[in-house]
Every structure is written in structure tokens, then in C-alpha cells.
Amino acid sequence: MLNNDWGMSKYPFVPGHEVTGTVSALGEQAKGLKTGQRVGLGWWSQSCLSCHECLSGDHHLCSSVQGTIVGRHGAFADRVRAQWTWVRPIPDGLDMATTGPLLCGGVTVFTPLLINNVRSTARVGIIGVGGLGHMGVLLARAMGGRAAVLSTSADKQDEARALGAERFINLKTESPSEALRAWEGGADIILATPPAAEPMMAAFPGLALNGTMVVLGAPPDSIAVNPMELIMGRRRLMGSPAGSRKDLRDVLHLASTHGLHPRVTTMPLDDAERALKKMHQKSIHGRAVLVMD
User: Fold this and answer.
1) Residue 120: CB partners within 8 Å, gap ≥ 6?
2) What CA–CA distance (Å, rounded) separates 33 from 130?
3) Which of 28, 56, 106, 259 could serve as 102's disulfide partner, Cβ 3.0–4.6 Å?
4) Per-residue pLDDT for the chain (293 aa), expressed as one digit of tens each?
5) Where exactly are the structural domains of the chain?
6) Equal CATH topology for 1-100+243-262 and 105-239
7) Alpha-carbon separation of residue 124 from 8, 141, 175 (angstroms)
8) How far apart are CA 250 and CA 88, in angstroms?
9) Could you give the C-alpha distances from 156 to 151, 163, 195, 250, 284, in angstroms and in order?
């Protein structure tokens, strides 16, 4: 969004879409919230509430859904405005700084795990163990699944194990499809978090029968898969854009009941430029969180 890579940014641009704070004011039609309450806001901030998708609970698929930082100022400002339906209360026990990443990155990996019915028998392959991937491991394990991390960085193995992954596949030295198939027949679901098509295509044959690869990072190149691997294994390739209002509520509840805290690096808001630079250099550990005084 800062660089207008998606062609939807308007300048001057104020970022900030994984927001935690307190309610400072309420509109006349706002329900279920009160001033002073701890709340959070993710990527989406408004939907029509009356279309088929909204009435079905898939508010994030609404054709009129609006992004928190698309055409409006985000939370690098000291106030942010949103439709009350997308502002979610933060459960007691969750820290404000570590809750922020759950509201977009967290729900982005949580929703496909929910849709694909991850449970104790599920094998979840996660490409990447960065800002999105590490939350994928935490949430898959909390839902009862088993996790394998696929990464190009060998030095991420200890971190992956500490998060709860039972396997680590080095994409530079191993065939991801062969390594996944050796994992009791393959992964039931693969979460592809980095915006890179090559590891997705290399890992796709490592899906088990009836397995699903979920594209979460948007690569600039097209993704091509072998049609016979797709057809004969009844495998699926799908995308998933963040999550619904219900998904936001449920991921916060799951994090609260299991004591999950995404890994974050906190910095003061005055250091926003330095934080963004470190993020682009990939030298931030976990998610970067800017904290106001």
C-alpha cells in the first residue's frame, strides 16, 4: 500500500490496519460497544450488511467491503474511524501489542484452517515462518493440528521447532513435495504465506489426497500446477482474503483461551520510518508493532 503496488493507494497516505486501542466515541447506531472499551480493527472496516455474502456471514467477501486504509486514513494517526460491526472487543488476558497482528495476519491464516476443518489428525504445511507463517504454526497447533514449516532459511529451524512445528523442510536443500509426501502421505493443507510462486508450485505435489493449498501471499507471477496432480488427487488450490467478523471474534477467543501471543518487535510511533525500513530489509523479528505513548 505504501508503494501503491496494488494500484489502490491515495496520497497523502496514512497506514495502520492492525489496530488496537480504546473506543473514544460512538455513532448513534453503534451497538455492543462502549467508550473506553479495548477493541481491535483489522484489514476490513465496513461492509453493506445486507447482501447475500453479509447475510451468510462472509462479510469479507461483500462486493462493497472497504479496507481500513483504502481511501481513508489508518491508525498511524491518533484516531481511526470504522463501522462498528468490524470493531471487535479484545478479550481479557490479551496484550494490546501482541493482539494487533491477530486482526489481519492472524485471521488470514486462521480462516483457511477453519474452512478446511483442521483438527488433531490434520497435517498442516506452512511455507514461510515470518510474520504470517509463525502465526500459522501457533494457530494450527492450538486447533489440534500438526505443523511442518517449509523455509529457505536454515536458521529458522530452531524457531519453527520452538513454535511447535514437528518438521522443518529446507527449501534450498530438499524437495518440498518429496519431504511432504514422506510425512505420512502428504499435507492435508498447505498455507502459502510468502508472495513467491516458485515454492508454491514446488510444494503443491506434496499435498495428500483431497488436500488443499491456500494462497495467502500474492506473488507477481502466475501459479501453475500439473492438472493431473490436481485432478487425480482431488486436490484444490484456493485463495483466502483475511476473514469475517465472526472469524475475528473466534481467532481472538482462541488466542485468549490458549494463551497465544504472536511474536512482535515493538517500537515507538516516532520510529515508524525506521521500522518500515527494517521490515523491507527483513530484519524485523515477527511483526513490527508501533506503540503510541
Assistant:
1) 144, 145
2) 33
3) 106
4) 988 988 899 899 999 999 999 999 999 999 999 999 999 999 999 999 999 999 999 999 999 999 999 988 999 998 999 999 999 999 998 999 999 999 999 999 999 999 998 988 899 999 999 889 999 999 999 999 999 999 999 999 999 999 999 999 999 999 999 999 999 999 999 999 999 999 999 999 999 999 999 999 989 889 999 999 999 999 999 999 999 999 999 999 999 999 999 999 999 999 999 999 998 888 888 889 999 97
5) 1-100+243-262, 105-239, 268-293
6) no
7) 33, 9, 17
8) 10
9) 7, 11, 18, 29, 13
Q: Which residues contact 244 (CB under 8 A, 6 or more apart)?
A: 57, 58, 59, 60, 111
CATH numeric code, 1-100+243-262: 3.90.180.10
Please state the pTM of the whole predicted model: 0.93
CA 110 to chain centre: 7
- H runs (alpha helix) in the chain: 52-55, 96-99, 105-115, 133-142, 157-163, 176-181, 197-203, 227-232, 245-258, 272-280
